Structure formats: structure tokens, C-alpha cells
């Protein structure tokens, strides 16, 4: 089952020739999710052949224009594409009021649209699906901002094929073994569960933290995640500017990754002053070696942390 992240935009406030403003397409198991929606998000999804009309949920971190300007076009296109599937958009307060003058009253859209307001000062689970949950990560920016943490649920163990044949297991016995319940063979002998099942892989997780200043509480929230995206707008030499603008440096992003013990770190939301972002990557690697500066259009697989 795939968990795959596609970067649609990784520039900060202004797009460049090679980078759009913030947006990400997350294929999470059997769901299609959009995280933030900078102005070129829909164009990029079309260009990359991503099924944007089928999006299940949209997650907005905050109401700065570089994270929401693509939304009116996207929501209107759903109507033009005859979407009828319900949609929920999670965001801090105020998004509906910004969008309705552009897309019309929510009730008149041809698909049910639910505006779900998220609290930005405390972490909570906002979505509990069969195979995964989504929780919020309070972030520290100039306006109310939240990150999102997508966690795969632990899957039940798989049954060993040769054990089915060896003990002639029935469907009910297979179900019981998967739940860890006692199973007996035809002679009434108790079977060792470890002989019948094989453990499923560790659950995977992805955390999105943009935009934010450095704050240690973020490391607590993202402890042990498989993949962390943390904004890295500037190099550490501009730390003063970072504080004033509510952003983080590449070094600070790496410090969060290191403290949290994440599997892999992706850096993004780059200031347009950096034509070559390899310097930001190098800076992060000085304290967290598994760090990479993202590129637009690039796809990243999410693996279990070792
Ligand atoms: Zn931004
Ligand atoms: Zn912002």
C-alpha cells in the first residue's frame, strides 16, 4: 500500500522559474490528499497527471496567500468537472469567509463541501479513518498556523500460507489468529500464534510543518515520524530575519529532525534569494545527514523508520 508525497510547490511567498508556492499531493494508502494550495497547485496536478478531481480531503496550514491562492480555482473546477463526491477542507478559522465571495455560497456547489475549522494552539486528532489518523501540530508563525501529522494505523499480522495448509485452518480460525486469539488444531491442541502469523511492517507517518519558527515543542509532536517536511526558508546566517518573519532556517529544521529522531527530513519553502538550494541542504546535513532539499514535481516514497 503506497504512501507517496508529490511536491507541487516549494518556494516561499513568490514563485520562481522552477518553484511554485506551497502545495503537496499526498497519496496516503487509498486516499488522495492535498496539503496547502498555492496558486499553481491545480496546474501542477494536471501537468503531473494527478487525479485532482478525486481529492478526498484538503489540509490548509494557514491563511497566507502563498498557501491558499489556488483554492478558488480548484474548488470551482470541481463543479465544472461534475464532482459530486463530498469534500472536507481542514483549516484555521476564516477560510470559508475568504473563499465564498469567489466561489459562491457553499450550499449552491454541486458537491457537499464541509469547512472544518482546526484549533491551532493545541494538538488534536481531526480525522480518524479506518487505515490512518490525522492530527494537528501547533506551529509558530505570524498568523494562526497548524501542521499536520498523517499516521498509518498498525495493520493486523498476515497469516502464513503454509500454516493454513498444514493445520487446515478455517476462515474463522484465520480471523482469530490475526487478532491474536487462541486457535486449536483438529486434535484440540493449542497452536503457537507465532507459527501461524507473520507481523506486518511498522506503520509509516508523515509530518508537514510549514510555516513556522523553530520551536522545540514541534520536535515533541513529530517524534519518530518516518518523514518530516519542515520549512527552511533561510540559511542560518539570516537567523535575525527568520525571527522577525516567523520562519526557520535549514539548520533549525535539521535540529528539529535530530531531536525528534525522524527517519528522513525534507526541506522546502525556500526564499527566492537562493538560486541554488544545495547550500541549505548542506547546512542541514551538518547535524542531520538524511536531509534533502525538495524539488517541485519530485515524488518521495514514505518508508517505515528503522
Ligand atoms: Zn508561506
Ligand atoms: Zn506564512
Give the oligomeric state: single chain
CATH topology type of the largest domain? Metallo-beta-lactamase, Chain A
Percent of residues in β-strands: 15-25%
Q: What's the number of structural domains?
A: 2
CATH architecture label name of the largest domain? 4-Layer Sandwich
Query: In what order do the strands lie side by side in the largest sheet?
Result: 6-5-4-3-2-1-16
CATH superfamily of the largest domain: Ribonuclease Z/Hydroxyacylglutathione hydrolase-like
Sheet of most strands = 7 strands, mixed
What gap, in angstroms, lies between the N and C termini?
18 Å
Mean of all residue-level pLDDT scores: 95
Number of strands: 16
Radius of gyration: 22 Å
Name the hetero compounds present: zinc ion
Can you describe what's shown?
There is one protein chain. The chain has 306 residues and is of the alpha/beta class. It has 2 domains: 3-155 and 201-301, Ribonuclease Z/Hydroxyacylglutathione hydrolase-like (Metallo-beta-lactamase, Chain A, 4-Layer Sandwich), CATH 3.60.15; 158-198, no CATH class. Helix content is 26%, strand content 25%. The protein contains 11 helices and 16 strands. The chain has helices spanning 41-47, 65-68, 71-80, 95-103, 161-167, 171-178, 193-196, 216-221, 239-245, 250-260, 278-285, and strands at 3-9, 23-28, 31-37, 57-59, 87-91, 113-117, 125-128, 132-138, 146-152, 158-159, 197-198, 205-209, 227-231, 264-268, 291-293, 299-301. The strands form 3 sheets. The protein has a 7-stranded mixed beta sheet. Strand 7 (125-128) and strand 8 form a beta hairpin. Helix 10 (250-260) runs parallel beside helix 11 (278-285). The structure holds zinc ion (ZN) (2 copies). One zinc ion (ZN) is lined by residues 12-13, 22, 64, 66-67, 211, 269.
